[in-house]
Automatic annotation (TrEMBL), chains A, B, C, D:
The keyword Hydrolase applies. It comes from Bordetella ansorpii. NCBIfam families: FormamaseFmdA (NF045496). It is an enzyme of class 3 (hydrolase). Transmembrane segments: none annotated. GO terms for molecular function: formamidase activity. Keywords: Hydrolase. Its EC number is 3.5.1.49. This is Formamidase. PANTHER family: FORMAMIDASE C869.04-RELATED.
Length: 409, 409, 409, 409
């Protein structure tokens, strides 16, 4: 049995667990040390630390304090790891907490974080997904059932001070271009809700004041939300501080490319079993700036796709220059429109794109002025036939069930 | 034997072939009529109509007149097709012209079109790829050999006048924001080099004056450059004019997601064997705005990938808001840096990303302020081992061979 | 949390657990009842009920009493199931017992069961495989590491009396053709070691006297040892008795097609999470005689194979008529010879073929007089390169480690 | 353009083409020489040399003289190849003759060759398959349409005299055990219909008298009928005579594992584009006795299977000892019975199993006394849904169309 280095009690606040933290800072003390070649288990909270409940109201999604996220387990120190090394991490397995076999997906209110399609779905909504072994389905979205492509949304090593300063500086510069924007352009440090692990007192306060928020992916990896970084894959992380300081959290039972619903994938509390080793000096040897990885040999193998195209002309007909973000948004909107013909509400369709293993491809980025993006929807996840045919769509979903919605207060 | 409806003689200028056109306009006369259920073959020029030669100089890439592209075969009319229908097209097979078993890939000069990485590779370069049955390799880029994922870069139905007007209007509006930009933001009509098929005289001149350029993908599909729209796939195209008016060209032997080199994929002259049918009123039935498609059951099946991450922080450290274009550029630059460790020049590495079946995924688009994109490089296309290992990379490419470069004049 | 209907204590003899049985008979009492739509967990012993230990001696393999196998968990009754129905079983998940994260593979002595290559490996040998999350490796066989294709070797419904009688009659008829053969042609009932679940006294003795041995696959499924009947798959079982009476055991962490080592796959104690439903009258509706199934969407996805051919000419040069068994044996022997060139002992190579997800295809069965079978060896399971190349094989395995062997006494 | 070394005129008898032969013998003169590294094209007849016609009568299948098959193109000599080498052959591409875009599948009469299920289908029947680019369908079997997994049924190097003698001796020994059997156990030399390439006069007569028939697969490969030895794969052939002497024929557009219908796959005339190289002394270096190969990166990728089990109890209830041949026959019969519920005739279902890319796996070969084989039927080749469901099968095939049958005379 591999050792569980960090345990999590879901009935306890993550702030009371000293092996948890929710900011990036080089001063966060190592929670546990391992040796190269070791394998071990870390338990994790869901990214909100339990703020979202398994119920039929979206009030919790509407009201969650996003300055508290993400609650990470770690940092784990690896003996001998030095700045410039690559930390090789094998994801030997990942799972849900046995006492918490469910996850959530939702849309934040536009006033509280928003999401990819926040102009179209501006209010808080939620769907709950139950896990049945390797599979999941939702009482709020009938007609879909699929195997989980389980992965951590957030994992990476601690930054050193120079990198941390770079992050804070460039993100603040962006915020300064439009500081009143809702949702904001980026999130600055928020000391009040910072959880700096075992750090206490003045040291804690200093680190909390400059601790980087965990929301964006950055050079170290971090909140990449890459669905393919899944159980069975191998990742090569840049090391910036002695020992590396590997932290992980935000486990997902499944997610589509883009994690377009923001709140988020199918979010869950769980555990991850990893093995670590080192490539000494690997960053220079291989010219590595961001993590690289190899996909798992064992993944859900849906193959029959319906593929939707989108171009960088926005919903109002405005022309944008090679903007993949807008092109992908159009592809997603096209898919939602299609699924509505089978009886889904727009919100249900949007949630399917956020949770199921859909692919988002950058198909063309040079044919001025239009980028072209494609959204790959696996048809096999549906319990009915969604193929186009001459006789037109058959409405398989009656519409009697929908996702809870909580209007802004 | 299926009938070849349109033939192409590579020794003849495409301007002399009345079944070819290089603009989109509803007035372009139908070149040939077919019935639903028919299958037929169309031959095509390469996208430049033969301007790029199988030699070891990039002068032709530097000097090509881009206002002439793309030379398309068609339009083919389908009896009974009416606006609002979906034209279902099966790509039964696609191949190179037997007398032209090679293709080209290149980078345009920044002064003449540029490309995705034009700031890094600002001058004209070219690589020639020979076809060996299903496989291809280049005398300018040693050590790679892969199966072709053959597809048309450009295919779609004629727009009606209203859609054409929309295109011209919105693209001109973008150009007007920075009309002096090099390369330009978009391409307005260019009557001088327009080839309007069989249209002659005043009718030709009127149509040429407003005929939309073929460069960008648009609502009808067009120059989508989607590598997965390959032989064996089925596409559902919106119909805007009676008969549909299906045109096709710009065949690619292989391409990576994004077609990042712009000039372009592995470009070739060839033929395409298609079957057509109709879903009457399909646009409304299925809520279709852009084409949708189903991938082929028969594609190159490379599976072992090395995956590079990129975030929306630019080369100068500037922070951008959820910009997938920049994130993908960083992922591509990361992959190029990696490949250079094995002995490739930057240009060779860039060309590999443009030609081989690499995937580009939109991995995260909500974690403000950073988008996260991933570049999936199939390791099996290399004739040597590119996996990271503790001992560091082994230089497999000696550097004695490189891609021709033609400096700007 | 799904309910665990049957628990297993590995420190207790399976004979003491009344929810276990090791023979097939309609009189074995139902251990637990469920309803269509229910999902539930059954724990299982390894097939030998704990006779094989995690150590470095093959004495236990040599000495095991094969009349005791296989220890099955069940039977589970499904309310409403009647003879002629199809029992639909979804394998929602399968795993090893958390307190027993290892498995064994071995060859029986030719005097005690033998195996597919018993003439070549006539003595007892054993390898132990440790589980690291989804992966496994063996201290007795260096250089291989692969993901588990976890599946039950043995599962099926209780026969009715008529079917049981048919089985006993036809197998005894085969035994009678050569009753002294070692190993025997088939196994007749063996009342002494029979475990008939909760059945006691005279009823137990009667059933034990005619209870069918669990060794062969039969019409109901049973000991099929099909590696692809894995977690995530859906199986349709014929029902012969009211309630069905579903029993399961002999879990495998991984196995090659054919389970050629007989002892067996990577054998383990574990648990299986299933959901059941019914197709009323399904046997007649679909003309079903043996189970049918659909493979899992989530399986290890090794793709690069080296494929060995074999024909039905035996090791002595003798010609056999379309004998696939002999053809597959030759393909296996060819693969073993190949692997020995890289430093493996014959026994290690044999064990790899028995445990890794190798495929065995019936490639040709009509080209008289030779059948042709192919053995597909996934190259990605090796930690070194096993591809053929002009310079010949590089010996990657030093030979210092081998599988324990226990000579016959 | 690769050179076409051997051309075939389908209007000419293969006996008139001196680059064709239909027996194996070391004295057959090399038809063309190439160098290692060369690539070239060989055209081929269908295996019967044009005896079967594209019509609606099975008379030709009933009446064909099987002593004439298979007509092979070659032998091709490779400079420098010596006995003991491995001849590495890349299948760069394979296709149908452009003037012959169709193929045939059939069952021989039991009196003239028979087949795998000859007891069930004892009379001559035929289906014609038309090729539509990469796809095929049959006017005799509605409702199926699939992509071709194109491959040569027969390819290998010339035997030396010692190997030839071994073949003739061991096959005659088998024949001698039951010389009157219909169909025969094996085929002895048949000088009258032998075509020995360019060999003439007494030399021809001597070679014809002992030339091995091409029907069975043997050590050199030969008539393996392995569906996965397809375009894009790489094969390593043992070399027995100076120059190797590579011959090929019997091209198949598609075939199921086992080629169970014998006549045969979807048989076609065509061409194959190959590249050759050598591994000197490779047979000893790698311990090679039979060819080995690597599968293609580009194959039809059907993934959703319905899997049928079969055990080695025959149709009369007789018990056989680990007989995979019988087990696979039962799996095939089970699949045929299933398909009949959707409206197919037994003959149509049998033909689908012989032509479509079905897999046949040797699932269990140690669980005495029953072997277990599985037949994997890809559901995606059907134009209607063949999944089992609670409501039972829907008859999609009306039965108005069937395969021509020609009773024995």
């Amino acid at each position: 049995m591999p050792e569980t280095l960090i345990k999590v009690d879901l009935s306890q606040s993550p702030y009371e667990n000293e092996n948890i933290h929710n900011r990036w800072h080089p001063d966060i003390p190592i929670a546990a040390w391992v040796k190269p070649g070791d394998d071990f288990v870390l338990e994790t909270y869901d990214w909100t630390g339990g703020a979202i409940k398994n119920d039929d109201s979206a009030d919790d999604v509407r009201d969650v304090d996003l300055s508290t996220v993400h609650f990470l387990s770690g940092p784990v120190g690896v003996e001998g790891a030095e700045p410039g090394d690559l930390l090789v991490v094998d994801f030997l397995d990942i799972g849900a907490k046995p006492d918490s076999l469910w996850g959530f997906n939702g849309f934040f209110s536009k006033k509280n974080g928003g999401g990819f399609l926040t102009e179209h779905f501006p209010q808080a909504q939620k769907s709950i997904w139950d896990f049945h072994g390797m599979f999941t389905s939702s009482r709020h979205i009938p007609g879909v059932n699929f195997a989980g492509l389980i992965h951590p949304g957030l994992i990476g090593c601690l930054p050193d001070q120079a990198m941390l300063d770079t992050w804070n500086k460039r993100e603040q510069a962006l915020i300064d271009t439009n500081p009143e924007r809702v949702p904001p352009l980026a999130n600055p440090p928020a000391p009040k809700t910072a959880h700096m692990g075992r750090l206490q007192g003045a040291a804690r306060d200093k680190a909390a004041a400059e601790g980087a928020r965990t929301v964006p992916p950055r050079e170290h990896g971090g909140n990449c939300d890459i669905k393919d970084l899944s159980r069975g894959s191998r990742v090569f992380f840049p090391v910036y501080v002695p020992g590396g300081g590997l932290s992980v959290g935000d486990l997902h039972f499944s997610q589509g490319d883009g994690e377009i619903t923001f709140c988020g994938a199918i979010e869950m509390a769980g555990w991850i079993h990893m093995r670590v080793s080192l490539i000494k000096g690997g960053m220079a040897k291989y010219g590595i700036r961001n993590p690289i990885f190899k996909p798992s040999p064992i993944t859900p193998n849906y193959k029959d796709y319906l593929i939707f195209e989108g171009i960088s002309v926005d919903e109002g007909g405005g022309q944008h220059y090679l903007d993949v973000h807008i092109a992908y948004r159009q592809a997603c909107l096209n898919a939602i429109e299609y699924l509505k013909k089978f009886g889904y509400s727009g919100a249900q369709a949007y949630s399917i794109l956020g949770t199921a293993p859909v692919q988002g491809h950058i198909s063309g980025v040079v044919d001025i002025p239009n980028a072209c993006a494609t959204l790959w929807l696996p048809t096999e996840i549906f319990e009915f036939d969604i193929q186009p045919q001459a006789s037109g769509p058959v409405k398989a979903i009656s519409g009697g069930v929908d996702m809870p919605l909580s209007p802004d207060l």
